[in-house]
Amino acid sequence: MSDAVSPLNGAKYEGFVTVKAMGLQGMITFRGDLSAAKVKKAVKTVAGTDMPGQRECHMSGDTGVAWMSPDELLIFVPYADVDAKLDELHKALEGQHFLAVNVSDARAMFHLEGNGAREVIAKLSPVDMSPNAFGPGEIRRTRLAQIPAAFWMPDTTSVQIVCFRSVAEYGFNLLKTAAEPGSEVGMFA
Amino acid sequence: MSTRLATGGRLIDRAKTVEFTFNGKRLKGRAGDTLASALLANDQMLVGRSFKYHRPRGIVASGGEEPNALMNMGEDARFEPNQRATTTELFEGLTCKSQNHFPSLEFDVGAINTRLSRFLPAGFYYKMFIHPRSFWKHVYEPFIRKSAGLGKAPRDRDQDTYEHFYAFTDVLVIGGGVAGLQAARAAAETGAKVMLIEQTADWGGRAMVDGGTVDGEPVDKFVQKILSELQEMSNVTLRTRMMGAGVYDHGYVLGYERVNDHQPDALGPRHRLWRIRAAQTITATGAIERPISFAGNDIPGVMLASAVRDYVVNFGVSAGDRTVVVTNNDDAYRTAFALKEQGLDVPAIIDARVLPQDSVLMAQAKAQGIRVIMGHGIAGVKGGKRVTGVQLCSQAGEGAVLEDIACDVVAMSGGWSPVVHLWSHCGGKLNWDEANAMFRPDVYKAPMGDAGEAFVSTAGAANGHFGLGDLLEDAHAAGLAAATATGAKAPKGFDAPKGITVEEAPIQPIWLMPQGAGPKKRMKAWLDYQNDVKVSDVQLAAQEGYESVEHAKRYTTLGMATDQGKLSNINGLAILSDALNQPIPQTGTTTFRPPYTPISMSSIAGEARGEIFQPLRKTVLHDWHEENGAFFEPVGAWRRPYCYQQSGESVKDAVIREIDGTRNSLALLDASTLGKIIVKGPDAGKFLDMMYTNMMSTLKPGKCRYGLMCGENGFLIDDGVVVRLDEETFLCHTTTGGAESIHGHMEDWLQCEWWDWKVYTANVTEQYAQIAVVGPNARNALARLTKDDISNDALPFMGFKDIELDGIPCRAYRISFSGELSYEIAVPASYGRALWDKLRAVGAEYDVTYYGTEGLHVMRAEKGFIMIGDETDGTVIPQDLNMQWAISKKKEDFLGKRAQERSHMADPNRWKLVGLETVDGSVLPEGAYAVADGENANGQRNTQGRVTSTYYSPTLKRGIAMGLVHNGPDRMGEVIDFPKVDGTVVQAKIVDQVFYDKDGEKQNV
Asked: Are residues A113 and A149 in the same domain?
């Protein structure tokens, strides 16, 4: 395991919020019929949570499930467990039409911490970040300036973001720029 | 002279002096000043020169409509031209220079143009510079370019930062005057989410200067009260220094926030561009006063009446000691009162109207002892760089001078035009209000949303309501209507505050003063101060047949300057209407386009500059490449090593060394960028049979097959190796640039056409680092890292196998793009660097080299493999490349099949792929054409082929190329001519395209 390196290897920036590059996170792209009872059951067994509704995510630490589209989920499991969890899914859904692949290494993940976390995102993503429109339990699959990204709020003052690994540096620098001291907007205060 | 008064100035702090520099002169202002008020306080009325005639120009206005006071602002990395002094808040250390003059503002040689103005009428440039034709490019254009533009272009990189912000609201109110405040207050009472933006730093708008009574209290008390109420409401966002720049479809509005223009050294961005989605937008943008067209109305000291009183009331600055007011309406009388209150002299109010009885304001003026001259106008203004007096005449006559009145300021008012720009941006229509002589929004023809409902409304002066009574009621109703349109409920018993409307006598439209002004006067009556357009120019345009207002605008340049005609448009089109003898609404307005006033280019770019100008995609080995001399080239958004240069080595030599190393022993290539798409499901085989020209459903699990992909029109769009992982699962490799587009292409067909097929896809390109281990020693090197059997029997050519390399689980594909023994090793990206380092370690014994994309290209060309983008250009079909072997004849259908059967596609005369070998061994130029005998219908030399790929082959030690040639495959051995741009000709022999190891023995060992 010591051979595996996460994108940006733990980079960190202290602005008006803290920006951190996170370590390796297991992620499975799942596509299938999300309304099927068997699928719901299999997903619950693997991720320990109920099927999320549209634009929702059910997260608890490094496990959980996020809704990505009407036939797609992003399942979060510990990095070391991905293969085992994929096996579990394949066993549980044998004979069903679905797709489940490991995408853990294709992603970079960032964590924003601080009262201004919503503002940092609102500078980069065309998403209504006001507390009455978005908060914990929801996910947005959108863009961060010029790259695709998705994010959710583990709690009311932090945001977790995933983007593609090849643009991890761009993503981190974007967040860093948006979090520069003095650029607070005061919109969601 | 203009100066600071002893008292007054509600916006300035007299205790705080602020130093600034104008044209190198050190001057002093007060905190709270605008640059314009500070210049006036220092008796600097002359602020620039006009564009065409270099006429002296003074400050005319006090806001965003100012046409003259444009500055080259700041220095070096903060330099910016055309900055409006009237909207620039003064700060310590501000430096600015006036524009468009040489050698100095006071003495300008270009001013000779004004003497020549008789010879420089409207359309002069069009008439003059068309003959002789050849002069345009070499004489006229360079000359005009040099004299074009007011300010200087910046030289240095902008040192400030900029950003965007996405905001969402139910109701957006643009404009923080009393109407905007009341509209916001009413909308907020319903509980709707409200955002109110104001372009200046202060709330209350004109009412703060003009005064009035609301609910029995002075209007400034009302503003204070409503503002504090709004500040308390959690559903309301208030922003100052933020202009509504543009209104677009679907309730999209741009807000331009000048965060730090007034404190350039503060932390944070200079500008912030707000990208707002508003369910409803209310434009409470007020109104702009119009100048009056009389001879000499451009001489410094002639100002808008409202601006003259703004400077007195807001900044305690008088524009001069003696002010003559000239007007066609009652409002300008307020300027006289404001001046009188400060003890300044008002020799006369010249009112062009003849009224049966005095209005309230007239009576007040007379009671104060001001001379009010009705039915008169100004025949001419005396003075050059500064007004010294006016000549009185009868408005009805031709301008016979009745009396000279000495003064140093002329405060003019031709009436008010509602600011309808934002209303109009998205299609809101206007009505001509005859009684008030103004265009106002036609509320029945508002900008419409997707459901045919209005999404923009307007309130207050912007809607043509000027008295506080009507205005507040209008704004209140607009606020409630906008909020309820978003689904909020109107509260009961919530009424508009009661404002008092002062009774005013009606305006009389005056488009030319005096009414019968002759040609000489009309040539000195300015409409557009910045672009030097006069009444005579617009009349000439009409005379020459420019009947459409849009044509007349472009012919005369009326309203085309950086102020976009905020002062000149209505006056100009009234003159045009008069000349065409048609009513004003028939002439109409020109189109109002965003932005309302210019916004910085940097704010549009936002954060996208420097290292985050655009995303660069980097593989997990990128750092290693960088540390090892990689010479990068862009491939899509990726940066891939073209080659690795050793110290003192040229790019060409590096490529040769890399190819030799690969062919002779062992080399590594970072192939991670290749697209990888998983296609899974019971119908996956059937689906891939449609996507590729060849048969994929028959591929055995564990095997690889090269495939071609065409679009519906039959042209090649991508190629790559397809791997069958199991019965239901395929892995499709695409080109580097094709990963996202091909994935999108697949999903398009699956979602829109074959939605009932059971297939899912996933783009896993970035999940894997892929390293090609290439060369005769590839197997030997790999064997040192694994116990797994990787022999030719266990892992044959075009097979794959899961193996472990020194503890790292990998998948090894026996595929080759170089013609050598080759394994492409895929590992989870997180292990990519570790695997690379292990391969380097075992490779050392075999003198491992690392090769880049150029080595890859040359080696594939030596093998005669095609490259998407080289051999294909969107017009090439597989048959052109002699790849019939990859087109299944058994399949009923595939994308492109029918297209390829069309007559032009099946034409035997299509150019076909061959190899080209230069007779002298040189390298053919890229893209060179082979010539044929004769000329075509256009007199151009006929051609018979072109080069698609050309390289120096280190393996063959000569130039090799591929190209498409007419009947090429049937002409082996024939020599054809490729002329070069230097006039010489390269001869090349048509040969087989495979130059190296035709039987593929090297890759299959």
From this structure: yes
Minimal Cβ distance to A105: which of B163, B615, B767:
B767
For residue B760, the chain A residue with the least C-alpha distance is: A99
pLDDT band at residue B147 under the 50/70/90 scheme: low
Number of domains in chain A: 2
Instruction: Give the model's pLDDT for residue A1.
Output: 45
The beta-carbon neighbor of A170 closest among B193, B615, B834 is B615
Q: Report the alpha-carbon distance of residue B994 to residue B872 in Å, rounded.
A: 17
Same domain, A152 and A166: yes
CA angle (A25, A27, A29) in 5-degree steps: 165
Residues of chain A found within 8 Å of residue B617, distances taken between Cβ atoms: 164, 166-167
Task: State yes or no: pLDDT of B471 exceeds 60.
Answer: yes
| Residues A101 and A41 both lie in one domain | yes
Partner-chain contact A165 B620, CB within 8 Å: yes
Is the pLDDT confidence value at B149 over 90?
Answer: no
Write down the pLDDT at residue B151. Answer: 84
Q: Please answer yes or no on whether B762 and A127 come within 8 Å at the CB atom.
A: no
- State the number of CA atoms in the 13 A half-sphere of B56 facing the CB: 18
Report the alpha-carbon distance of residue B10 to residue B286 in Å, rounded: 21
The pair of structure tokens assigned to A68 is 């990505």
From A15, which residue of chain B is nearest by alpha-carbon distance? B268
Q: Looking at CA atoms only, how far is residue A60 from chain B in angstroms?
A: 24
Per-residue pLDDT, averaged over B233-259, amounts to 98
Alpha carbon distance B49, B69 (integer Å): 9
Residues A62, A85: one domain? yes
Chain B residues close to A31, C-beta within 8 Å: 760, 762
Whole-number Å distance between alpha carbons of B722 and B719? 9
CB contact under 8 A, B833 and A183: no
Question: Chain A residue closest to B761 (CA)?
Answer: A99
In this complex, do B638 and A166 lie within 8 Å of one another by their Cβ atoms? yes
Interface test with B, best of A13, A74, A166 (most B CBs within 10 A): A166
CB-based contact A74:A28 (threshold 8 Å): yes
> In chain B, whose CA is at the least distance from the CA of A170?
B615
Q: Between chains, do A183 and B269 touch, taking CB under 8 Å as contact? A: yes
The verdict on residue A79 lying in a domain is: yes
> Do A36 and A101 have their domain in common?
yes
Q: Identify the pLDDT of residue B751.
A: 97
Q: Which amino acid is at B494?
A: F
| A16 shares its domain with A45 | no
Q: Which of A105, A125, A149 is the last residue of a domain?
A: A105
* Same domain flag for A78 and A96: yes
Kindly report the CATH number assigned to the domain that includes residue A113.
Answer: 3.30.1360.120
> What's the confidence (pLDDT) of residue B355?
94
Please check whether residues A57 and A67 belong to one and the same domain. yes
Over residues A134-139, the mean pLDDT reads: 98
CA-based nearest residue in chain B for residue A144: B615
Residue of B nearest to A180 (CA): B268
Within-domain flag for A149: yes
Is residue A187 one of the residues assigned to a domain? no
Interval B569-611: pLDDT, tens? 999 999 999 999 999 999 999 999 999 999 999 999 999 999 9
Interface ipTM: 0.97
Answer whether residue B818 shows pLDDT above 60: yes
In chain B, the percentage of residues whose pLDDT exceeds 70 is 99
Query: Which pLDDT band holds residue B392 (cuts at 50, 70, 90)?
Result: very high
Q: Strands A72-77 and A26-31, how do they pair?
A: antiparallel
To the nearest whole Å, the CA of A187 is away from the closest chain B CA by 7
Domain CATH number, residue A80: 3.30.70.1520
Distance from chain centroid for Cα B153 = 18
A-B C-beta contacts closer than 8 Å: 140
pLDDT at B399: 95
How far B732 CA lies from chain A's nearest CA (Å)? 14
Minimal C-alpha gap between A174 and chain B (Å): 7
- The alpha carbon of A64 is separated from its chain's Cα centroid by a whole number of angstroms, namely 10
Q: Look at residue A5 and tell me if it is in a domain.
A: no
Cα R_g (chain A), whole angstroms: 17
Which of A4, A16, A12 lies closest to A119 in space, CA to CA?
A16
Q: What is the pTM of this model?
A: 0.94
DSSP letter for A61, please: T
Domain coverage including residue A116: 12-23+106-178
Task: Examine the fold and report which residue of A53, A76, A105 is the final residue of a domain before the chain moves on.
Answer: A105
